[in-house]
Amino acid sequence: MPRKNAKKANSGENAGQEFFAAIAQIEKEKGIPAGYMMEKITQALASAYKRDHEGAGDNIEVKANPETGEVRMFILKDIVESVDNPATEISLEEARSAIPHAELGDVVRIEVKPRNFGRIAAQTARQVIIQGIREAERGMVYDEFSSKEHEILTGVVTRIDPRNGAASLRISSSSEYTDAFLAPGEQVRGETIHEGDRLKVYVVEVRRSTRGPQVLLSRTHPGLVKRLFELEIPEIYDGTVEVKSIAREAGSRTKIAVWSAEPNVDPIGACVGPGGARVNSIVEELHGEKVDIIKYSEDPAQYVAASLSPADVLSVDLLPDGKSCRVVVPDDQLSLAIGKEGQNARLAAKLTGFKIDIKPASDPGELPDPEEDLLVVDDGDEPAEELLEEPVGEAPEESSNDIQV
């Protein structure tokens, strides 16, 4: 019999140490700070007490001492003549039975043993602690992935919605991982995705939600091309070569304007690499998407002429509004300058920020109206295409060399 009582006493002595050991284990395995866990446990004990004692408020105090392994809970009660709320008040007579020198208006601390809580109260405390752990985990995941906005991550396709083709990916960063969403509109047209495929994706945005962080991905964003160039080309990563502008129609063609402040550095050559190795690896990752690498120029005429690569340009006339120009090309280069369904001219306009009116050398015509918002093509077949505008950066004047891959 004494042996049995000794075990009970030993169990009580070790309970506090086991409590702090559990918190340390959670911190080690999940990275949740011990201070945060103590805060949540305090909230849990308070919620459990309130569940069993109607009228209790914020008069609950929890004292935890990691050095001694003690965790004690106290209820603070005001000493009054007439008790209206037993959960927060105590009579003078009852207080003096424990503390002889107690006076009206004093506050006494009454220790409460958590093991005396009822079953439902204990379940309430457990749910508060579990919810606190989940919130901490979601917060760490959000912090990790929000720092990866506008970066490239590699994800594994876990599910494809058969109704609309939307894909769910499991992405990871450092030691954190989460499920992310690749919408049908952010997938490259013609690109087939299967469950289990590994994809490089661009993180467009990270949002908070009740179910944890929501990570929005894209395979069509121009930023994906820029990050791929940074990964493959050290000169872009270290800033020797700068990406000035990108225009992309995902799955078909991309135009990228590059420039270098170093006079001895050829930005196009740096991007292409020996034997085209660097740019070919990017094209392979983009599943064969064509990439035009163009040297940026501060001279708008040279820049526009280079942007229409691979077509040759005879002249570029800038209009007074500063946002439009007329380009004259050889007759046999007209279709090449415009591109299939106007794609080449459309991408050139997006890249440079200029509205471009392309004319053949045999019929250059009048200068177009600067207020006109459409690309006018005089070949009798191609429809007019509305062009998008993007701001053009500035840099020292360069020649309009270009390369198509």
From TrEMBL:
Q: Which GO terms describe its biological process?
A: DNA-templated transcription termination; transcription antitermination
Q: Which UniProt keywords apply?
A: Cytoplasm, RNA-binding, Transcription, Transcription antitermination, Transcription regulation, Transcription termination
Which residues lie within the region annotated Disordered? 359-405
Output the Gene Ontology terms for molecular function.
DNA-binding transcription factor activity; RNA binding
Q: List the Pfam families.
A: KH_NusA_1st, KH_NusA_2nd, NusA_N
The record's listing under InterPro entries reads: KH_dom, KH_dom-like_a/b, KH_NusA_2nd, KH_sf_prok-type, NA-bd_OB-fold, NusA_N_sf, S1_domain, TF_NusA
Q: Where in the cell is it found?
A: Cytoplasm
Identify the residues that the record assigns to the S1 motif domain, covering every copy: 150-220
Q: Which family does it belong to?
A: Belongs to the NusA family.
Q: Which PANTHER family match?
A: TRANSCRIPTION TERMINATION FACTOR NUSA, TRANSCRIPTION TERMINATION_ANTITERMINATION PROTEIN NUSA
HAMAP family annotated for this entry?
A: NusA_B
Oligomeric state and interaction partners are given as: Monomer. Binds directly to the core enzyme of the DNA-dependent RNA polymerase and to nascent RNA.
Spell out the protein name for this chain: Transcription termination/antitermination protein NusA
Please give the organism: Candidatus Intestinimonas pullistercoris
Gene expressing this chain: nusA
